[in-house]
Design goal:
- The structure is a single chain.
- The protein has 355 residues and is α/β, with parallel strands linked by helices.
- The chain has helices spanning 2-21, 28-41, 54-63, 82-89, 109-117, 136-143, 163-170, 190-210, 224-232, 251-259, 278-285, 305-313, 332-339; strands spanning 45-49, 72-76, 99-101, 126-128, 153-155, 180-182, 241-243, 268-270, 295-297, 322-324.
- Helix 2 crosses helix 3 (54-63), helix 6 (136-143) packs parallel to helix 7 and helix 10 (251-259) runs parallel beside helix 11 (278-285).
- The longest helix is centred in the middle third of the chain and has 21 residues, at 190-210.
Length: 355
């Protein structure tokens, strides 16, 4: 009986809590007044936060000539669905829109496809679809859009995008101006994560190049994907020095560096504190492009006698004046091969700069 009374007593409270937590739908008159008040402060930016617009409210919003001056439209947590996206796409009042944020709503692949095909959004530079229900199909539609060519920023964090969608987005030939793609907190697998990471590194390197600060790239190339992104850049050909120490690189990345014709101008290469073994050392020794190197730092790796012997026999590395192999796994046999090398005759330090 006591438990029953407690439940009956609490019911009104819970009813009040949930009802008050869900805002009631705004009437057309109230919505227009709300819009007018907002735009009176800033005619180019309209932010609608946590309002229950419903289909009717979105229609009133889209039909209002007040929107003709709006360049930035934010509809945050307003229970917007695909039908609402369709209504916005049909509006004749959004011709000046350059930034659209539909964050925290209920948009699915259908809504993403509407955004990707409507000429209403042709001038968008920023599209924020954070925390919706978009999957691979919607992501692929955005990636293949003939309308969204002006997009610079695309936020798809907290959706349901997997590897296929991520691969299409990060390799899109249609989104020619894209600089940022948000894919955090999506169920990406290894391929999707790597593609996204590679895209981000690529964009950062381009930014550094434009700022004439490419010498600072090392801190952004974390892991092998960073190296592959670097080698995709056309201006990698102009590099004379490359510092990739402590970047977690494996033999796979080092082999790619050694084989790349774009790096034939390198005179200094720092690969210290990575995960390079005899395989990577041999790739460097056998390189057909790194013929101008005069400084090579391989300190603090996992190179043994086999790698040391490959370097000692290398005619490609004959121009080296400084070779550092300290804190590796080279024993007396490898040291002897280096000391008696007929190729490494230009080294300034007789102990090969082990330390």
């Amino acid at each position: 009986m006591v438990r029953f009374r407690w439940t009956v007593f609490c019911l009104p409270f819970f009813y009040f809590f949930f009802v008050s937590a869900s805002p009631s739908q705004m009437s057309g008159e109230d919505l227009l007044k709300y819009i007018e008040k907002k735009l009176r402060r800033n005619s180019t930016t309209l932010r609608i936060n946590k309002k229950n617009l419903g289909d009717g409210g979105v229609k009133i919003l889209a039909r209002s000539p007040l929107l003709k001056s709006v360049e930035t439209l934010v509809i945050y947590k307003c229970h917007l669905k695909d039908e609402g996206v369709q209504v916005l796409s049909d509006s004749v009042n959004l011709g000046n829109l350059t930034s659209l944020s539909l964050e925290n709503n209920s948009i699915t692949d259908r809504g993403a496809k509407i955004l990707a095909t409507s000429k209403t959004f042709a001038n968008l530079k920023s599209l924020n679809l954070y925390r919706n229900w978009i999957k691979d199909s919607g992501a692929m539609a955005l990636a293949e859009s003939d309308v969204l060519a002006n997009l610079v920023v695309l936020n798809l964090n907290y959706n349901q995008i997997r590897d296929e969608g991520a691969l299409h987005l990060t390799s899109s030939q249609k989104l020619k101006n894209i600089k940022q793609i948000g894919l955090a907190y999506n169920p990406l697998g290894k391929d999707g994560e790597e593609a996204w990471h590679r895209f981000e590194v690529f964009q950062k390197l381009q930014e550094l190049h434009e700022q004439n600060q490419l010498q600072n790239m090392g801190q952004y190339i974390l892991g092998d994907m960073g190296v592959f992104a670097l080698l995709d850049l056309p201006y990698a050909e102009g590099l004379t020095e490359l510092d990739l120490h402590g970047n977690g690189l494996s033999d796979h990345a080092v082999t790619a560096l050694a084989r790349s014709p774009k790096l034939s101008g390198l005179v200094a290469l720092n690969l210290a504190k990575n995960n390079i073994t005899d395989v990577g050392a041999k790739a460097l020794a056998d390189s057909k492009t790194l013929t101008r190197l005069n400084t090579l730092n391989l300190n603090f790796n996992h190179i043994g006698d086999v790698g040391a012997k490959s370097i000692a026999r290398s005619h490609v590395l004959a121009s080296l004046e400084s070779l550092k192999l300290g804190q590796n796994r080279i024993s007396g046999e490898g040291v002897l091969a280096l000391e008696e090398s007929d190729s490494l005759t230009k080294l300034i330090h007789p102990i090969f700069g082990f330390y």
